[in-house]
Design a protein that fits this description.
Blueprint (H helix, E strand, L loop, with lengths): L2 H22 L26 H18 L5 H15 L7 H13 L5 H20 L3 H16 L4 H4 L2 H20 L4 H22 L6 H15 L7 H5 L4 H16 L20 E6 L1 H6 L2 H4 L2 E2 L5 E4 H9 L7 H14 L7 E5 L11 E5 H7 L1
């Protein structure tokens, strides 16, 4: 496949995948919602309706134009501008798939062979870091069994016993696929492995009928792999890891280096491909019955009332309303709690608990607690 045909196919696939993600999470892109927006800076305005809706539909139209007229760079650049504008207005929108598509759009807005190599770097390192993020006890003991239980529950006890060994192998398989894509010698095997990974993941997702927003990404990724690496016997690891320009260097840093800083809590988890890895911060909001009675009915179903105090599951709230997980960073968790503090004004039973990223070997976490007064002081 020629470079021009690869580039055209890549623009079409990226645009369609992006459109599917937007369609499955449409409430995420509006301001008329209960889950609060968390802009990257408090100085940024919160766009009221219908302005936010205009931008959302403008992005959809521009992505459609990108898919229909893939050889034109104009809709690609315009899509990128609108997507970045919507992104800075709410950190919850920076889902891993959104982040990947945005950076790929930047690459696809350029000319020559560089866009393809830049996207190869993005895709290969996505597999590498997706695997490395899952090399922890929390993924093997909690996330994987929860993710795979619907499928394995239908199997015999003998096959069910393989659940944990498979959980241990998942991170290694992803890493091997990513590294293999970077090489010429093992590229063909890595392509087959990558396609198999997403086939298995899709089977599990379809069996559980959950997390629909990542279904398109799991279809798009093997297509990206085939477009970018299929039949490519020329691009070497050196070509990809030794940048040929400032933007390619930035991509190597963003996708190859910065995720390592997430281990020390210095780079966001979702920009480090940590979705469904278990290696993220967690948070709940403890509240009493008086606050519960003041909450909008739409989120009361996300409050656990089986113990005292009650607690609001922030992640479940995000899934129920926006069809995406909450962006797992302290700033977003505090912003969400501030909204609950507004609803429960005058009550003293609201407290945010943020759990740190787990210890990779033991899964142990430390916790920090914040009440409404403390949150106001931080602001």
């Amino acid at each position: 496949m020629s470079a021009d045909r690869r580039l055209t196919a890549l623009r079409i696939t990226t645009a369609i995948a992006f459109l599917c993600g937007l369609g499955l999470s449409w409430r995420l892109w509006t301001s008329a919602r209960l889950f609060p927006l968390a802009p990257v800076s408090d100085a940024l305005p919160l766009l009221p309706p219908p302005i936010d809706g205009v931008l959302f539909f403008a992005l959809i139209a521009l992505l459609l134009a990108t898919a229909i007229v893939p050889r034109s760079r104009v809709p690609v650049i315009a899509s990128l501008v609108v997507a970045l504008g919507l992104g800075v207005l709410d950190q919850t929108r920076w889902q891993p798939w959104f982040y990947q598509y945005v950076v790929m759009l930047v690459a696809l807005a350029q000319r020559g062979k560089d866009p393809l190599d830049t996207c190869r770097i993005i895709v290969a390192f996505t597999y590498v870091w997706s695997g490395l993020q899952k090399l922890n006890a929390t993924f093997v003991d909690e996330m994987w069994p929860d993710f795979a239980q619907t499928f394995f529950a239908t199997l015999s006890p003998t096959w069910y016993a393989l659940q944990r060994p498979l959980g241990l192998s998942v991170p290694i398989i992803e890493c091997v696929a990513g590294v293999g894509l970077l090489t010429r010698r093992f590229r063909t095997q890595a392509i087959v492995l990558a396609v198999a990974i997403h086939g298995a993941v899709l089977a599990l997702l379809l069996s559980s009928r959950e997390n629909t927003v990542v279904w398109p990404w799991n279809v798009a990724m093997p297509v990206f792999v085939i477009i970018l690496f299929g039949g490519d016997r020329e691009t070497s690891a050196r070509d990809l890891l030794v940048p040929r320009g400032a933007f390619q260097l930035a991509v190597v840093v963003l996708f190859g280096v910065m995720p390592a800083l997430n281990i020390a809590g210095l780079w966001p988890s979702y920009l480090s491909v940590a979705l469904y890895s278990g290696n993220t911060k967690q948070a709940v909001i403890y509240l009493g019955e008086s606050t519960f009675d003041r909450l909008p009915r739409g989120i009361r179903r996300d409050v656990w009332q089986g113990t005292t105090p009650f607690f609001l599951d922030i992640n479940r709230w995000a899934y129920d309303e926006l069809n995406v997980p909450a962006f797992p960073e302290a700033g977003v968790y505090r912003r969400v709690t501030e909204r609950v503090c507004e609803w429960g004004a005058g009550t003293r039973d609201i407290r945010l608990r943020i759990k740190s990223q787990p210890h990779p070997l033991t899964g142990a976490r430390t916790s920090g607690y914040y009440d409404c007064n403390h949150l106001r002081e931080i602001r």
